[in-house]
Write a structure and sequence with these properties.
Length: about 575
């Protein structure tokens, strides 16, 4: 394979802020351009805020929003999407401003500010906007306003902000994302700038400067020129703006994390006694055409570990390499007692592999074979631990996508861990990928949610479906639809599947518990529980809804009892009839 050119996101940036004719400057500017892995995983933040002049603490509000967002954004998990991370932080900041405004200033407008954010990640610009600050983009000589002002006009002369940070506990955030192109120019401004200079004048200044090739100094000079123009046009407000140019973009069609694979060769087949980077191979415990798994001894710590290597059969398969790298990446970020721990290597590896903790025990599949119909009180603790493990994935915006008994370990003491990350979908990385209509189904037949077969992306409720299949199988020693799922199921085939009530296989399963399982196994994702914990709650606590709507006729629940009862009633009626005929 040819080694790809190492490209990364690079920008030039200039800014200007001045109080103008006002006594104080309530505006605030902020930016953060990280390096290396943080740049790749979180991106660049450019922000602008305008404290409302009629607010008692508008300046404090604007500064709190800018510094608070930048600090908190880079503290969120790398696996979170830009949208999720940003909206959570913005909502928290809004609640804080609203609370402080009412407690410290006893006013509904105590701490109020606009907030406009531009987050650049990979080849995408993410825009978050509240208020009347603005973002413009200059591309190919055309200047476009990318935000809309949240301003209500009472008359031609009178208007007011109808949406801003700190006004209301409920916050409606404008969000949009747009693809980036090299040489794009973005302008962030407060109303002291854009209310006093026409779009035509802005375009002329920006286009004239861009023809000279922007750098940081020219961007600063251009910002100053725009501010001067607004001031000459009788601006009566603070003058603040930021100007940036996209100098370079990462590879648009290849996920950046994939480039790591080009730096490391695949390891050869390993034999007992061989040493790889300080790990002495003890034995091979599993091998497939895709991967090999070994137990190994860490010669430094004397601890037994698991070492997983990719098969050389796939050394030219970029999709496989990508999945293997994601497996390690995801595992290192999940910290849960119910999920296998991936060990961070202190030494730089010479080949492609990763190391995990060694677990005593057997797979859940092996456990199920030894316990074909375990009591419910034994099943529920297993399901609860799997649920908590899945929740650890979902908190980081990761979907497991291949939950099945073979990917779950259970120790002799009954402790359960999810052990496989090979099909994990990571939202924070997935948003950097070029979208394709042909999504590969990574899960396993009978455990993959129906939406995956129909080409849909799925969400946390897709993992819930897999969990519900496992729950049903643990309780009934059968699959929930009575037969295997078709290899490549169509909508018609899926619609013909009929759920088999647990009572037909295990009369000990309560009706309400079976109702919870049936809901989680709905072929329509919208009908399922909202999350895995809601499902767990319905397994552990009788839901009246399932008692009412899932009542099964006696003839289905216990045919022998039904016919015995029917016979007794028939005999009684015949005796009565005989009595009347005789008399």
């Amino acid at each position: 394979m040819n080694k790809p050119i190492n490209k990364k996101l690079e920008i030039s940036l200039g800014s200007f802020s001045d109080k103008g004719i006002k006594a104080d400057n309530d505006d605030c500017l902020g930016s953060q351009i990280p390096e290396k892995q943080i740049l790749k995983n979180k991106g660049i933040v450019i922000a602008i805020a305008d404290g409302m002049s009629s607010s008692e603490a508008g300046k404090e509000a604007s500064h709190a929003c800018i510094s608070g967002f930048i600090n908190d954004y880079y503290s969120t998990p790398d696996s979170w999407t830009v949208k999720n991370s940003s909206q959570k932080i913005i909502s928290a900041l809004n609640s804080w401003l609203y609370s402080r405004g009412h407690t410290d200033y006893q006013s509904a407008r105590g701490m109020v500010t606009t907030l406009t954010l531009l987050v650049l990640k990979s080849t995408t610009a993410h825009i978050f906007h509240i208020g009347d600050s603005r973002i413009y983009r200059l591309r190919d000589g055309e200047l476009e306003q990318l935000t809309r002002d949240h301003r209500f006009w009472v008359s031609d002369e009178k208007n007011y902000l109808n949406r801003a940070m700190g006004i209301d506990l409920h916050l409606d955030i404008d969000y949009r994302k747009i693809p980036l192109e090299k040489d794009d120019i973005f302008l962030l401004s407060t109303d002291g700038i854009h209310d006093f200079i026409t779009t035509k004048s802005l375009r002329e200044i920006l286009s004239r400067s861009s023809s000279i090739n922007y750098d940081n100094n020219l961007l600063k000079q251009t910002c100053f020129e725009i501010a001067q123009q607004a001031s000459k046009n009788q601006s009566d407000d603070n003058l603040s703006l930021q100007l940036l140019k996209i100098d370079n973009l990462p590879l648009a069609e290849e996920e950046e994390v994939l480039q790591k694979a080009h730096e490391l060769p695949f390891p050869p087949p390993l034999e007992p006694g061989m040493i790889l980077d300080g790990y002495q191979i003890i034995k091979e415990i599993h091998a497939s055409k895709r991967t090999q798994i070994y137990t190994a001894l860490d010669q430094d710590t004397k601890q037994t570990v698991i070492l997983k290597t990719p098969s050389i059969n796939y050394q030219d398969d970029e999709f496989f390499i990508e999945q293997f790298l994601h497996e390690e990446w995801a595992g290192k970020r999940i910290d849960s007692p119910y999920v296998l721990k991936i060990i961070s290597l202190e030494k730089k590896p010479r080949t492609l592999y990763y190391v995990a903790e060694f677990l005593e025990g057997i797979t859940l599949r092996e456990w199920m074979q030894k316990n074909p119909l375990p009591p419910i009180e034994q099943v529920l603790p297993i399901i609860e631990q799997i649920t908590r493990g899945l929740r650890a994935f979902h908190r980081l915006e990761m979907l497991h996508q291949d939950l099945k008994p073979e990917n779950i370990m259970i120790s002799p003491e009954g402790k359960v861990k999810i052990i496989d990350f090979g099909s994990v979908k990571i939202a924070g990385i997935n948003e950097m990928k070029k979208q394709t209509s042909d999504e590969t189904i990574l899960g396993t037949v009978n455990y993959s949610a129906p939406e995956f077969y129909l080409g849909q992306s799925g969400d946390e409720r897709s993992d819930l479906y897999s969990l519900a299949v496992i729950t049903y199988e643990l309780l009934n020693n059968h699959l929930p639809f009575g037969r295997d799922m078709p290899e490549k199921a169509t909508y018609r085939q899926l619609s013909q599947l009929q759920y088999v009530a647990s009572i037909h296989l295990n009369p000990m399963v309560p009706n309400w518990m079976d109702g919870a399982i049936q809901k989680a196994l709905s072929l329509d994702i919208k009908v399922r529980h909202e999350d895995v914990f809601e499902f767990l709650h319905d397994l552990q606590n009788p839901n009246p809804h399932f008692l009412e709507t899932n009542a099964i006729p006696l003839i289905e629940r216990n045919p022998m009892l039904f016919w015995r009862t029917f016979s007794i009633i028939s005999l009684f009626l015949n005796l009565i009839l005989f009595y009347f005929l005789a008399t």
